[in-house]
Every structure is written in structure tokens, then in C-alpha cells.
Design a protein that fits this description.
By secondary structure, this protein is α/β, with parallel strands linked by helices. It has 6 helices and 8 strands. An 8-stranded mixed sheet has the order 2-1-3-8-4-7-5-6. α2 links the parallel β1 and β2. The N and C termini lie far apart (65 Å).
Length: 225
């Protein structure tokens, strides 16, 4: 009898030990959308939550869908919000030219003329007698939307503009063309281009569902520190 009792005790002990050693389920990853203009803030997101618990998806501002993701990050404040928005930083929108361009500053009027196509030669802006190559983004990108509203008064960029996929690509393209002018954000400004006009300072926003889950609330708290 004592032997049977001992065996039952040992069996219960090992079963309890095995149950305790069972690994817990891995954390469900947060799904985060972001625009090309908000890429620098992904580093902050990863430092808050860890890259192993985050899945990301880059989209244009027009295609952000908070219904299918936990958080969306964009720059600039649209006219209407369909979900709560929280400011997590600021960003400057800059007009830049090639370093070989002798122009070191432009007025708001000159910028408008260049990007609408009314000005086609740098000579009209007191530069060299060469053509102007305008660079922009696709209409759905938040950077382009901010620029169109703030610098062009709602007008569209010239149809002869070349399009870049993101600010890093645009900076590289402008650095390789002495006649180029384009738009980047402050975080992408390196020594390969020159700033000639500051368009606006805008908020960097995190969009969430009306009632974000606890992990999203913790991430927001970290991003706003």
C-alpha cells in the first residue's frame, strides 16, 4: 500500500512538473501600417516593443486601414479622421536641390512656380540657364498631400514631374541631377542635397482603433515619451 501511495505521489509530482515547464504561448504580434514618410519612426516602435512581436506593412496614406491593423503611422493631419489619432513627433517638409545648384534659397512664390510647371528654367529663379527637373511622389503619399496643400494651395504638381517611391530615393535622385528639385522630410536630409525652402512643420500621428488593446496602449505610451 505504501508503495502504491509513493508511486501515485511521484506520478503527481512529475505531472505537475511537466505542466509547469510547458512554455507559454508566444505574444501575438502587433500589426502596424506606416507610410514612406514615417519610416524613421519605425526604429522607435521597435525599441519600444521589440522587432520579434511586430509585423509591418508600408502603404500610401490613402490606403491606411486601421480596421485590419492595430496601428497606423503617418505624417501630417488629414482633413477628416475615421479613427483616434495621437501625436508622437513632428516632421519638417523641405524643398531641396542638387548641391551644385548655385541657388541657396527660394521664396514661396518661386517654389509654387517651379512645382506647377509655370517656371521651367532655373534662370527665372536667378540660377543657371538650364531646365528644371521636378521630382514628386504619387498623389496618395502623405508628403505629397502636405506639399500640395501647403506650398501649392491645393494645386497639383506639374505633369512633367518624375516620381520617387520614398524620401530616400528622392534624395539620391536629386543628388545625381544638378537640375533637380524635390521634396523630402528633415529626417532624410543628408549632405548630398541642399535645403532651399521649408514648407511646413507637421505632426507625426499614430492612428488606432477606438478602443485599442492593452499592448497598443503600452506602445502609444512609449512613443509619446
Amino acid at each position: 500500500m505504501k508503495r502504491i501511495t509513493s508511486l501515485l505521489f511521484l506520478s503527481a509530482f512529475f505531472l505537475h512538473g511537466c505542466k509547469s515547464a510547458t512554455p507559454s504561448a508566444p505574444a501575438e504580434p502587433l500589426l502596424i501600417q506606416y507610410t514612406a514618410g514615417s519610416v524613421p519612426w519605425l526604429a522607435v516602435v521597435y525599441s519600444c516593443e521589440g522587432i520579434d512581436v511586430i509585423n509591418v506593412d508600408q502603404r500610401s496614406a490613402d490606403l491606411l486601414d486601421i480596421q485590419s491593423f492595430d496601428m497606423a503611422i503617418r505624417i501630417g493631419q488629414p482633413d477628416k479622421f475615421t479613427s483616434p489619432a495621437y501625436q508622437i513627433g513632428t516632421e519638417d517638409i523641405l524643398v531641396v536641390v542638387n548641391r551644385q545648384n548655385p541657388i541657396n534659397s527660394l521664396t514661396a512664390e518661386q517654389v509654387r512656380g517651379l512645382f506647377t510647371g509655370e517656371t521651367t528654367s532655373w534662370q527665372e529663379s536667378k540660377g543657371a540657364d538650364t531646365y528644371v527637373q521636378v521630382w514628386g511622389y504619387f498623389p496618395g503619399e502623405d508628403i505629397q498631400q502636405i506639399f500640395d496643400q501647403s506650398a501649392l494651395g491645393g494645386r497639383r504638381i506639374t505633369s512633367t514631374a518624375r516620381l520617387a517611391a520614398n524620401p530616400d530615393e528622392m534624395a539620391q535622385d536629386i543628388a545625381g541631377d544638378k537640375n533637380a528639385v524635390g521634396i523630402i522630410t528633415r529626417h532624410w536630409k543628408l549632405d548630398n542635397v541642399s535645403v532651399v525652402f521649408t514648407v511646413a512643420r507637421v505632426p507625426v500621428l499614430a492612428l488606432t482603433a477606438p478602443q485599442p488593446k492593452a499592448a497598443v496602449q503600452n506602445l502609444l505610451s512609449c512613443l509619446q515619451k
